[in-house]
Write a sequence for this structure.
């Protein structure tokens, strides 16, 4: 799909929609990483300074991280033309491994012709080189189209640069996509599948401008996050809101905060939507007192480093008295949560944002008639709580489970044992 910067380079001079047939589309503007892949004949010396990733890691990133950024680069008008074709082939200079999941799962493409990453057969790691004939540009795109279609002539070709003329000349019709500030990206509901899960530490797409700003901010961000974490760590919870404000952290607390436990009045179990690993700490700060955190799949290291008591919850326990709590967090640069990364770094990434914001909303207590004591099953109670949290946060519920999320984003079932074994 012809694609460039969102809202800046998407117009197209397309005549009437093409007749059903084969289409080959150029898509080499999806440059999300500051890394150039070159052929073995022209190695890049800087590649050897980078950690060579496992192919499995690249595959997971292509499914969990890149689709949201790619979708912002797809022009609505171009997709409508692309979608009307019977056979849809995308030709790109990007590695096939990174582009193919998005093209097939979200655009409905049939095949991707692109650059192939060289892999060490023993270690299953990318070597930093690409396979012959090299990066697929210019005449190499033309050769790839000829090999794929043979004697068949594609009906339509769409390109966005002069080097695409080589392969467009093979098509019965060819159109160039020209820059335009009035162009709009495809609505997410027009994709073949919805983008539900997303992983990664970056809030914004790392285009050149955002990447430069982020790199310039990093030294200050590192110092600032260390101060924000360790100045507040030993302080009483009732003092932290004031030091948060002094350090540029915006804390918003809404709803009625339950009173502390007293003789004859038991405490509360707060059910969170788990925005980041900071959720229980934010609850403690909002309440002005320490609370114990119970969570699934908590490592011993996380329990040891936590500033509040942390308990690993077994999967056959349930709370009797629940209060819902809907936290949200906002940051301009980094996301304070991840599936595949190390959870220990969550607060550090969150506090590296220039002006991090954490919002916590205390909701009403779980109605007695919706409790297990009233005859409801644990599944019914859980579904009700999820509905309440989803309604408050503006989320739509799906039939997907936590296990589904971790299988897609991390390639494991979300248990500590599986997560650590998968990284070995």
């Amino acid at each position: 799909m012809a694609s460039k910067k969102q809202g800046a380079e998407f117009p197209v001079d397309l005549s009437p929609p093409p007749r059903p047939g084969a289409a080959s589309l150029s898509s080499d503007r999806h440059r999300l990483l500051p890394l150039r892949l070159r052929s073995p004949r022209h190695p890049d010396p800087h590649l050897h300074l980078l950690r060579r990733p496992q192919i499995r890691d690249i595959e997971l990133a292509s499914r969990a991280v890149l689709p949201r950024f790619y979708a912002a680069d797809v022009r609505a008008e171009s997709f409508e033309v692309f979608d009307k074709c019977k056979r849809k082939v995308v030709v790109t200079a990007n590695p096939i491994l990174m582009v193919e999941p998005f093209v097939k799962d979200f655009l409905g493409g049939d095949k991707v012709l692109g650059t192939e990453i060289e892999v060490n057969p023993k270690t299953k790691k990318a070597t930093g080189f690409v396979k012959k004939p090299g990066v697929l540009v210019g005449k190499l795109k033309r050769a790839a189209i000829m090999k794929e279609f043979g004697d068949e002539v594609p009906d339509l070709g769409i390109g966005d640069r002069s080097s695409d003329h080589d392969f467009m000349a093979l098509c019965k019709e060819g159109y160039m996509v020209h820059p335009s500030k009035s162009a709009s990206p495809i609505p997410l509901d027009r994709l073949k599948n919805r983008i539900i899960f997303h992983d990664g530490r970056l809030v914004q797409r790392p285009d050149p401008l955002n990447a430069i700003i982020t790199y310039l901010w990093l030294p200050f961000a590192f110092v600032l996050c260390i101060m924000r974490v360790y100045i507040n760590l030993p302080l009483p919870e009732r003092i932290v809101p004031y030091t948060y404000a002094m350090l540029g952290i915006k804390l918003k607390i809404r709803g009625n905060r339950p009173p502390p436990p007293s003789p004859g009045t038991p405490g509360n179990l707060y059910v969170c939507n788990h925005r980041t690993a900071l959720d229980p700490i934010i609850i403690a700060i909002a309440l002005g007192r320490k609370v114990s955190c119970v969570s699934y799949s908590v490592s011993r290291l996380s329990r040891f480093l936590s500033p509040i008591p942390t308990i690993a919850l077994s999967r056959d326990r349930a709370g009797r008295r629940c209060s819902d709590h809907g936290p949200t967090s906002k940051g301009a640069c980094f996301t304070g949560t991840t599936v595949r990364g190390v959870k220990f770094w969550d607060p550090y990434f969150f506090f590296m944002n220039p002006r991090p914001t954490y919002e916590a909303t205390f909701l009403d207590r779980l109605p007695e008639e919706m409790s297990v004591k009233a005859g409801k099953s644990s599944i019914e109670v859980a579904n009700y709580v999820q509905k309440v949290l989803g309604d408050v946060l503006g989320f739509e519920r799906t039939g997907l489970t936590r296990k589904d999320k971790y299988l897609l984003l991390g390639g494991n079932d979300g248990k500590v044992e599986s997560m650590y074994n998968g990284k070995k």
Q: What stands out?
A: Residues 1-50, 317-323 have pLDDT under 50 and may be disordered.
